[in-house]
Amino acid sequence: MEGPKPHHMPTLTWIGKEKVITHHHDVPFKVLSHQYTFNGANPGVANSSPNKIIHGDNLEALKALLPEYEGKIKCASIDPPYNTGNEHWVYNDNVNHPRLKRWLGQVVGKDSEDLSRHDKWLCMMYPRLVLLHKLLATDGVILISIDDNEQAHLKLLCDEIFGKSNYLTSFVWRRRASSQMSQNNLSIDHEYVVAYSKSDYSKFGGLQKDYKNYSNKDNDPKGLWTTGDLTVGMTKSQRPNQFYDLIDPDTNVIFKANPKRVWTYAPDTMKAKVLEKRVIFPKTDNGRPMLKRYLSDLKTDINPLSSWLSSESYPIGLNSEGTKTLQSLFEGKVFDYPKPTSLLQILLPQLTNNDDVILDSFAGSGTTAHAVLNLNKQDGGNRKFILIEMEGYAETITAERVKRVIKGYAGKEGTGGSFDYYELGESLFIGENEEYLNEAVGIDQIKSYVWYSETRTHWTPVPTLPQNDSFLGFHENTAYYFIYHPTHLTSLDFETLATISEPAGQYIIYADNCLLSKEFLFRNNIVFKKIPRDISRF
């Protein structure tokens, strides 16, 4: 008797797919070229910043981020082209951009001439999503803004890359209040935020309550706070020990429990709250003690809904809010249909902790950085942002907006903060088959890449002795060495070994040549790797 046939998940097929599903391996590894540091608090201080704005092709920039950020991005929030076919936007929203057409011709070949706009969009998105998946932390989440033009295709694409079981939801939010007629006489007033997790460890937290009534007048390191009642209505379940005198330890003024209301906490808990400075005593005898409530403590137990049509619980602005924000930052119209910062200011606190890294590889006007900076100011957090923008306005609009948000604009107080600005630099490997190291990128960039290719961790230079500057570091009881010189060939020989003094269970040593026998290497737990042949390309 024939058994049940195995179930296969539906997959999406398009012209050019077979050329792009592994294309991320062929993307050249380019270094990030630091241009300047912008520090809002100390303009004259040029120390590096944990925040980054990168100008360059986002496919190459995402790969450039791998050595430092693979597995470390808590949230990737992207707003890719919707593929509407419109030609007139400042942010090109179709797939006929000259750079994309050139890339498609190189990767897909002659078939690229026969691609529909949907084929082109899928070819463009696939390798970028693969690299974003690599960058996400185990408990990371990706948020993708999209509309009906590609939402169905995007869902199948993400099912394939992230796994169908890691689909969280497609949030629906209202982007327009006015009616705008289309060919089928429907006014489409909504868009989507498609959400996937990297694993089943990810889940949305509760919604934070409105922060407008919170402040931090005493510079409390725990962030914004407000006052709340310290009593509860008397019920049958109230314990007798909730009736007691509360004494201000500074003035010894006694506050008695109300005959109809009792203290919220039992005496021991209340004493702890007083010691923690969570109880605010009045300055007059006729006042009442109040409880200090922190914004960070006020996440509700209400699960967020998937449809956000703007209400008191979901104070998300329309796209017009994003337009007004940009108009207050710049004179005149500089960008079409920017997202409102409130959209991300609702989403990010549910997915990230106060010190997580948020990545936007389709940065546009810089809304993601604006939202992150606003959140940090509101709750005292230390979230970091990475923006990537390929267009020429990366400096004049994207970075300039972030500068003005940090410093303050249109009468608004600045958020504070800083960022490093980068251009996408040269390739680490050169030659027709990437057979040579590009010494122009600098030895530290090469060492960082080699370390990452071996350990999949970020390299931090270690202090070395003058005669042993080839030592990269230790990882899992293995010592790594990169013996390299730009002007002459290097060899692994007995003279070189004499400079190696770090004890380890195994040694991985890169050099141009090896003059030691295989038997000697094996006996001494040494693995020789030839430069540049044995440097992994990832």
Question: What would you note in describing this structure?
Answer:
Strand 9 and strand 10 form a beta hairpin. Helix content is 26%, strand content 22%. The chain has helices at residues 17-20, 58-69, 98-108, 117-135, 151-162, 267-275, 319-329, 341-351, 367-379, 393-407, 443-455, 494-497, 518-523, and strands at residues 30-39, 52-55, 73-78, 136-146, 167-174, 190-197, 225-229, 231-233, 246-247, 254-255, 261-263, 279-280, 290-294, 307-308, 357-360, 384-389, 418-427, 429-430, 436-437, 471-475, 478-482, 491-492, 506-511, 513-514, 526-530. It is α/β, with parallel strands linked by helices.
The oligomeric state of the chains shown is: single chain
Strand order of the largest sheet: 1-17-2-16-15-3-4-6-5-14
Strand content: 15-25%
How many individual helices?
13
Structural class: alpha/beta
Rg calculated over all Cα atoms: 29 Å
Number of strands: 25
Report the end-to-end length measured between terminal Cα atoms.
47 Å
Helix content: 25-40%
Q: Largest beta sheet, briefly?
A: 10 strands, mixed
The backbone outline, from C-alpha atoms, is globular
Uncertain runs are 1-6, 87-92
Let me know the average pLDDT.
Answer: 83
